[in-house]
Every structure is written in structure tokens, then in C-alpha cells.
Amino acid sequence: MDTNPYQAPTAPHVGPPLPNLSTVRPTILTVLGILNLVFAGLGVIGLMIMFAMLAAVDTLRLGTPNPVFDALRTNEVYRNFTILQTAVGCLSIIVLIASGVGLLQMRRYGRTLAIVYSIYALLAGVVGMIINIAFVFGPMLENAQGRAGPEQFAALGGMVGGIVGGVVGLAYPAILLFCMYRPSVRNALR
Prior knowledge:
- This protein has helices at 27-56, 67-74, 76-104, 108-145, 150-169, 171-180, 183-188.
- It is mainly α.
- The protein has one domain.
- It starts with 26 loop residues before the first helix and ends with a helix.
């Protein structure tokens, strides 16, 4: 007889079978896995646009001044930073795809890659904002300084929109990083 005399008797379970807790998938893993793949897809589209822009920056002439194209044409530091950021962006998209697949398959590497991607994306976003403020927004405001009216408002609007867009772009990597350290995610991927 292998009953424990010190353990309280339990009633038999009635109803549907209880789930095996070792195989329960936290919903957040599915959501973040899918979002990683969606954002990676958007990243591929963004990289294609960036490659086209870098290829055409010297030949493309727009009817109105474009501060980003002007900085890419005239500032070697900004151009080299953009090329480097684009190349590293290709690698980060591969990491994001692998992370999304790993999270959907409930693999530890999915969590590890999500953490690596999040840290990279947060750092790259902050550095990119600083570089844009220094090399695009600064000269843009200087050029609009002596002019009153629509050009000055356009310069301010472009700067505010760029900064707000950069901050909003940091939201997903921050949320992803936060979620990867939740106990339910850590326990599910052990």
C-alpha cells in the first residue's frame, strides 16, 4: 500500500482533464512571436526602401529641399552611419525572425534572441535619434531660422514628428524586453 498516512485524502477529479502545466503556453508567447514576425516583415520593407534611397540619393533631385537627402549627400559621417545602421538592421531582422519562430515553438533561444534584439533596438533607436538631431534636425532648424512662415513651421513639425516617431519606435522593443522577464514566460521556456 503506498498511501501516505499524513496526507489528506483527495476526492477524485470530476470534469474535463486538467491541463499539464508543463505544456501550457502563455498567450503572451504567441502574441509576441507573431508580432516579431510582423515587425520583421515591416523591417524588410523598410530596408528595401532604405537601399533604394541610398542608391538614388546622389541622382534623385526633388522639387523641394529634403533635409535627410541633403545630409546624406553632404555629410560623410551621417551617410556612413546610415549605411552601417542599414547593414546591422539586416542582421537584426534575421534575429527578430528567429526569435519569433522560437517563441512560437516555445524554445529558449526565442526568448534569448528577443532579449538581444530588444537591447539592440533600444540602443540603436536612441543613438539614431541623437544622430538625427545632430545632423538633420539641427541644420534644418538653422536653415529655417531666418525665414518666417510655412518653412519654419515645416522644420519644427518635421523635428517634432521625427522625435515623437523615434520615441514611439522604442515602445515595442521595451515591451518585448519587459515581457521576456515575466515569470510566466521564463517558466514556460525552462
